[in-house]
Amino acid sequence: MTLGHGHNHHHIAHGDLTKRAAIASVSVALFLLALKIFAATETGSVALLASLADTGFDVLASVLTLFSVRYAAMPADDDHRFGHGKAEALSALLQVVLITVSAILIAWRAIVRLGAQEQTAHPEYGIGVSVIAIVATLALLAYQRQVVRKTGSVAIQADHVHYQSDLLLNVAVIVAILLDTMLNVRGADPLFGIAIALWLSWGAYRAARLALDQLLDREWPEEKRQRFIDVALRHPELRGIHDMRTRSSGAHDFCQFHVWVDPNMTVAAAHRIMDEVEQALMDAFPGVEVLIHPDPEGHKDEMGYIPAQTIERGEKHDD
Fold first, then answer.
1. 92 exposed, middle or buried (CB, 10 Å; 0-12, 13-18, 19+)?
2. Cβ–Cβ contacts within 10 Å for residue 221, how many?
3. What pLDDT does residue 51 have?
4. Per DSSP, what are the bridge partners of residue 253?
5. Range 24-50 average pLDDT
6. Contact yes or no for 33/59 (Cβ under 8 A)
7. Using CA atoms in the order 176, 177, 181, 187, what is the torsion angle rounded to 10 degrees?
8. Do 275 and 248 contact (CB within 8 A), yes or no?
9. pLDDT, greater one: 110 or 31
10. What is the pLDDT of residues 207-231, one digit of tens each?
């Protein structure tokens, strides 16, 4: 299928959104890094040091995300006919490595501090910086949610997962410092550091699953597949759908499937129907790349290695 101007415009718009979100992420990370370097030096808090280490990795991850979404937004070319969208999934996996390393270093420093039983100094610095970090992170998360909702970008989603952990991390820093310095609960600060490391590990696992789903061409969620099928079968001259395959690459969606039509239909009539179905699908799922193969009603290709899903007009299924 030849993609029209509207399809290309859709991907350009998505690319611009993901690039702006990545630039915002880099800016916030650099701002917070400068603040936390000062606060961690003054307080000696392990929880704040953990937050600083995580912010340092945020800078690297956000820069990596920026480069990946810029590359993923490049249009398809002769060597990459499906585009460059999987660069986002690769970026997300590299972020997972950074998050995991960060969690290990934080846990190690917390265990060392747990044995030393040192008290945190200048708690007001740590609390003040953490409050500023919470406000900045909340603003960034709200913007990232909008971009992910509009584009489905897996790289921005991985970055979003990381900053969600940052939000809890900064709250944990405040609680840890208050317990350690004002309520004199010894060991609270390093214990919170360990808890933060565990939370980061969970975030890394979730981000890895998202990235691997795209790299391994996982099918769309069943609910999305069903909505797609319902839109296609609205055309009165389609008799059924079979051998449907879907995948995502970055913010790009791809779907190919076979349809049954009247065996006595002319090629010109079948071509007209395919164009009408494609248009309806692209109206309902903007930016999707659709490939449809018409078959005479009842015909199935012998493709034993792929379980065929056949949906005939009038058949009922669960959403």
1. buried
2. 10
3. 72
4. 248
5. 80
6. yes
7. 40
8. no
9. 31
10. 788 788 777 777 788 888 888 888 8
| Angle in degrees, 0-180, between the axes of helices 154-177 and 123-151, rounded to the nearest 10 | 160
Mean pLDDT on 271-282: 90
Nearest to 72 by CA among 130, 18, 137: 18
Residue 304 CA: distances (Å) to CA of 125, 307, 312: 65, 7, 20
Whole-angstrom distance, CA of residue 207 vs CA of residue 19: 19
Cα separation, 55 vs 298, in Å, equals: 59
Tokens for 204?
């890394």
Phi-psi region at 187: left, alpha or beta (left = phi > 0; alpha = psi -120 to 50)? left
pLDDT digits (tens, 9 = 90+) for 5-26: 444 555 566 667 878 888 888 8
Label each residue of the chain as H, E or C. Answer: CCCCHHHHHHHHHHHHHHHHHHHHHHHHHHHHHHHHHHHHHHHCCHHHHHHHHHHHHHHHHHHHHHHHHHHHCCCCCCCCCCCCCHHHHHHHHHHHHHHHHHHHHHHHHHHHHHHHCCCCCCHHHHHHHHHHHHHHHHHHHHHHHHHHHHHCCHHHHHHHHHHHHHHHHHHHHHHHHHHHHHCCCCCHHHHHHHHHHHHHHHHHHHHHHHHHHHHCCCCCCHHHHHHHHHHHCCCCCCCEEEEEEEEEECCEEEEEEEEEECCCCCHHHHHHHHHHHHHHHHHHCCCCEEEEEEEECCCCCCCCCCCCCCEECCCCCCC
pLDDT(317) > 60: no
